[in-house]
Write a structure and sequence with these properties.
Blueprint: E1 3-6, H1 16-31, E2 35-38, H2 52-63, H3 86-99, E3 102-105, H4 109-117, H5 132-140, E4 146-149, E5 156-161, E6 165-170, E7 178-180, H6 188-198, E8 203-207, H7 214-223, E9 230-234, E10 237-238, H8 254-259, H9 264-272, H10 287-293, E11 304-305, H11 308-321, H12 324-338, H13 346-353, H14 363-366, H15 390-405, H16 409-420, H17 424-436, H18 445-452, H19 454-468
Parallel strand pairs: 1-2, 8-9, 10-11
Antiparallel strand pairs: 3-4, 4-7, 5-6
Helix pairs in contact: 1-10, 6-7, 9-11, 12-13, 15-16, 15-17, 15-19, 16-17, 17-19, 18-19
């Protein structure tokens, strides 16, 4: 059975790149009727952020990626948090020590710094040849030590990656990794191998930054007599041609884009296409369609550039296809934030806005007219296109008020234009400004009267009349 995993570190937020890695692992597992596992890699406790695990789990849920095994849901290969597996790693480290594929290193921080200051580019295997008796004595004396991987000094390693083909690395370019730190906790380089094997991971999907480190992992698989997984390395998502998409340069997290008003699956749909070609020219796909279309041979060797404008466009398609109830439910938090306590029909406002927003935070701009009425500049009545003036507004305001009282307001406004011998657009402009105090509204005067209610509409226009008559 195909088994894939997503193994994030709990460092505070889920990066878009990490979400895409999880997505590809999820799609591949589901396409092949396999299992998708969530594992929390928290061996570096100094970087752990409180609550980050909950953020990761929540993000996967919002994105529609339901893991089959992992924290909370459990499974047969747990625990699924590395800090809870410490003893397991120590047991396998001991096996490597016994086979000579690892060794204890007592070098101090000062020695390592001096070594690098003198030009060394990697650890010099200084402690490899310590006698067993000396090692035991130093450990018994309480001397701090780490366990390092013993990488061959000569030769090469070749392995196959499903995206990049055969990869060959010279052992002389590899450093003896630390497997177990002085506090007894494993490094990522060791724990990921142990966990992937014990959790039955068949396909290892991760970032291209691990491409040249994989030979180190393969040495561990071989030393322990284990079968290597299938490797699938992914190019990064770029901000531009030279820079990776980074939190330091602005929004790069899944939650950042949710807070901007993007819909979860629109984000998922967009990032699925950053580095993968479905080969069917389709851009808008449901999760079921992504699963059906996904294949490893569609993964690209080149990096992809994140285009927020393109994601906005894709998001707008999802917004327009939402049911009226779903859009209104999604919009309510933004009404509460941007235009609270207005005496209007918010459900009707949703009807007006649904086709006029690309992302939900566009509601702020589209609903700005709700705060425009009080003390608006009367020069808004001046429109060069329609050749309207404040004096024209002053002449028409009483008639506009009477038209607003009519059962068929639009017909009454049209009749007013004919009676005065002016263009209908001139009447409609003056009527809408008198009603809203805003040059841009999601709909014309009829929609605004329905939104405010006729009584409120008439009150507003009466206030404007008084201002015009001063």
């Amino acid at each position: 059975m195909v088994r894939t995993r997503f193994a994030p570190s709990p460092t505070g937020y889920l990066h878009i790149g990490g979400l895409r890695t999880a997505l590809y692992a999820y799609l591949f597992a589901k396409k092949n009727n396999g299992k998708f596992i969530l594992r929390i890699e928290d061996t570096d406790r100094t970087r752990e952020v409180k609550g980050a695990v909950d953020i990761i789990i929540s993000a996967l849920e919002k994105a529609g990626m339901h893991y089959d095994e992992g924290p909370i849901v459990g499974g047969d290969c747990g625990p699924y948090v590395q800090s809870e597996r410490k003893q397991i790693y120590l047991e396998y480290a001991q096996k490597l020590l016994e086979s000579g594929d690892a060794y204890c290193c007592f070098c101090t921080k000062e020695r390592l710094e001096t070594m690098h200051e003198n030009g060394a580019t990697k650890y010099d295997k200084h402690c490899l040849h310590l006698s067993k008796a000396e090692v035991q004595a130093r450990i018994a004396a309480g001397e701090p030590y780490v366990i390092r991987q013993n990488i061959p000094e000569t030769g090469t390693s070749t392995y196959h990656d499903e995206v990049f083909g055969d990869i060959t690395v010279d052992f002389k370019d590899l450093e003896d990794n630390i497997l177990i730190k002085s506090d007894g906790m494993p490094t990522y380089n060791f724990a990921n191998v142990i966990d992937d094997h014990l959790m039955g991971i068949t396909h290892c999907i991760r970032g291209v930054e691990y491409l040249m480190s994989t030979p180190k992992y393969n040495l561990l698989y071989d030393a322990l007599g284990w079968e290597r997984p299938v490797y699938i390395h992914l190019q990064p998502i770029m901000r531009d041609a030279q820079h990776k998409l980074s939190k330091r340069d602005g929004d790069a997290g899944f939650e950042d884009f949710l807070n901007k008003g993007f819909l979860p699956h629109a984000i998922v749909n967009y990032i699925a296409l950053l580095g993968w070609n479905p080969k069917n020219d389709r851009e808008k796909m449901s999760m079921a369609e992504l699963i059906e279309s996904f294949s490893i041979d569609g993964l690209q060797k080149s990096s992809s550039i994140f285009d927020e404008t393109k994601m906005r466009w894709l998001n707008s398609l999802y917004v327009k296809e939402m049911s009226a109830d779903d859009f209104h439910k999604a919009a309510l938090p933004y009404y509460e934030k941007y235009c609270p306590d207005k005496n209007i029909d918010y459900r009707y406002l949703s009807e007006l806005l649904q086709t006029r927003v690309e992302i939900l935070t566009d509601i702020k701009e589209r609903a700005a007219f709700l705060d425009a009425f009080d003390d608006f500049d009367l020069d808004l009545f001046v429109n060069k296109k329609w050749k309207t003036t404040v004096d024209m507004a002053r002449e028409l305001i009483d008639d506009c008020i009477e038209c607003t009282k009519a059962d068929d307001m639009n017909a009454a406004l049209e009749s007013l234009a004919e009676k005065r011998g002016i263009k209908k657009g001139q009447v409609l402009w003056i009527h809408r400004i008198a009603l809203t105090g805003a040059a841009a509204t999601p709909g014309g005067g009829a929609e605004m009267v329905k939104l405010f209610g006729r009584d409120e509409a008439l009150r507003r226009m009466t206030v404007v009349k008084a201002r015009l008559e001063k």
